[in-house]
Amino acid sequence: MPGPRMMHRLSAVPLALAALGWSAPACAASFYLFPVQEIEGASPEAQKARTLLDKGVMERLFGGESGKQAQGALVARFVGRLAHAYPESVIHPRQVNDTRIGSGHRFLAGPDVQCRSAPSFSVADTYAVVAGITRASLYEVRKGDNVEVLVPVTLSLQFVRPSLAKVAYTMSETVYSPFRFSRQEYESGAMDGAIRAAVLKNLGDQVEALVDGARAAFNPKATTVRLVDRDGQFFVADQGFEAGFVKGEQVEARDAAGQASVFDVLYADSGYAVLRPVAGSVAVGQSLQFVFEGTADDGRKPRLMPVTGEQDANAGSVADIFARDIGFKAPFQITPVDVHFDQTRALITRAANCVDWSRLQSMAEASGIRKDAPHFFLRFQPVASPVSVQSGAGDTKTAERFHTLVAAQVVDRFGKVVYSELGDNDYTVERTRGSGLGLPQAREISLKNATTKLAQNFVANARFAPRDLRVAKVDAGRIWVEGMGAAPGGKLSFDVLHPLSARVGGKPALLDLEVTGGSLEAAEEGELVGLPYSALNPALPKPQRGDIVRLYGQGLPGVTPVIDCNEGPYIGQNNAVEVAWAAPLVRHALYRSTKYASHIGEARFYDDANRLLKAGLFEQQLQAPAIGMCSQPGYVIREDALQCEGGACKATVAMGMMARFKSGAEVRKTVTSGLRTEFGGLPEADKAGFYGYKQLGSGLSMQSDLLKKLNN
Q1: Can you tell me the mean pLDDT for 18-29?
Q2: Residues 6 or more apart from 2 whose CB is under 8 A from it?
Q3: CA distance 603 to 620
Q4: What's the whole-model pTM score?
Q5: Where are the alpha helices (DSSP H) in 553-625?
């Protein structure tokens, strides 16, 4: 997989291209990279907007004059490695101009490069490469007279096509720098220099590794594509997502004479794409060269947007790992949003200051509205058990055990959970005389392992095969389809595809009409089902008889709609330990139930989703549905019997998991599942930690029983 594709900014490019005198490069397959010689996220202004950057860590790394020198050294390693990886492509930011000047590639280095120095390169032929820090944390564990310190820093690498304000490729990795000091030397600040030197060395090694990884994956290539037919303003190309076309993006092309064109990609299928010119002049039968960074995901798959909070570091890490691990094998495509693109754009325009960016509106300011809104949203809930500590003979050896759980839900545009999945990891940290892996680092490794398992479960079990239905008629508020059976219980996510008169391979090409669900309810009329809809783009044809409705979900009739109660979990009497993992486990069973249609009730989810949709220039906004009945998870971990001798105990522990259905304050129904477990050899001094750790595994084993009872 070439890395998760990020959102791009729609831009008013026709005037910009004409103004910039876009000319063809000497070799059509050439591309040029200019490294931005600042570390994104390092400036005080950037840190204010990035809640995952610990201010103390960033000050230690980049504060003061020594910090500036450290950033300069890191930039030098980045630029040097990039030039080594792409020896025929790297140029200085001031070699980027409005037009191409001179011939042949030559990298002008140093701080004194002047504008219009030959050779210079048209901005349309370039990618900016930006190295940045997206997360920096510091963990301290005090052990007697010593302090264990762990500094995790997440580095990112972005390749940005400035002519389209588009992040073409991105990758990231977290660097862990562990330390052990005496409390006196650490608290005095005497070791700050040693911490900075070690972390920056590790960051330098990692930025080189990121560049090497990018070199293996990012290699833009010119692809010849033929325009085979047209229907009015819509042209059909003879290649589709396998070449690199992505619905919702803008793409550039040149003809044999070097004349430029820009297209909106309105639809991408296997073997063809539907394009609308927004700049330049093209004709049917013409062959054009497009530059693609890699193949695209199947455009027929539904689009899922991860939703994470600005201050939720763990959920953000899970989203990054999940997107990287899911690859092209998943039955959906990831549509992330870069909420800090404005900062990235400012770095690029400041670095390549020989370009008149005011004439390229995509970089002057964000403009336009995206119509390819996500079909679904991904919510991640990472939680961990308490730590259970067990000591060996003489306390020279210890084992710290904990269990990590990552729950994830696929949520439709109406707040309904259409799929739920889990990933978990049981982790043990073994120590000898106190030495061993730090607990914060172990937790991060376990979180990564659990997320990897979550991604594997998604690929193996998630099913989003779309269902195509023929449109029989359309009225003011509904599209009536044949063959659906009964009206769905609730609203559904769907696309409407219009067969064009233009054909490819003997079949009509399809055009996505960019509609979303309307405000009405679904209805039945004989054998027809009317789905409410609202058109988003008045420039496209209206839905009509003969069009295709592509359904991405199934609303089962007769299910009971419920919403998550706006309160914490119910905890039963004589509970031995409070745990964060019980509520996600109960909700997982609720979300999988075929008797209930569960909806997200958490206000923060809708706030975060709408913030990301706004940042991504989508018109769509989510709203929590008004549903009278809510569901509240509950649990109890009760110690029924205990016998201890010499600090070791035997215990009988009962665990109950429950779902309470409420109307207001009234509990209308309770569904429970229980399990009794005999434990031996548990440490008397750490009973609560032991129960909290072990019972997560019990909760996982109770899922099938709880789900069966929910469905009865």
Answers
A1: 40
A2: 169, 217, 218, 293, 294, 295
A3: 17
A4: 0.78
A5: 582-592, 603-615
